[in-house]
Amino acid sequence: MVLRLTWRAPAGDVTAYKIETSFNGGAWSELAELPATQLAQEVMKSSDDKYTSFRVSAIYSDGSVGTAKAFGFKGTFE
Question: Entry's InterPro entries (predicted)?
């Protein structure tokens, strides 16, 4: 199963987006860093085990980072 994550561009001079995952409430790890023009990322469900949380961060030209509220789904997505 493929899950397509999408988001809207925030105001400001965004240079990139960082997508992170956390499994069962564990540590966050970077899944991908995407250009500012890309507002979606596909992830594949590899099993029904665990719970995968996602968070998307906007990286601005001045180096600051804005992180959206985390969300998640049952299963392991990679």
Answer: FN3_sf (IPR036116), Ig-like_fold (IPR013783)
Q: For 9-65, what is each residue's pLDDT tens digit?
A: 999 999 999 999 999 999 999 999 999 999 999 999 999 999 999 999 999 999 999
CATH code at 69?
2.60.40.10
CA distance 23 to 46: 13
Q: pTM for this structure?
A: 0.92
Q: What six digits make up the tokens of 21?
A: 């995952």
Owning domain of residue 14 = 2-77
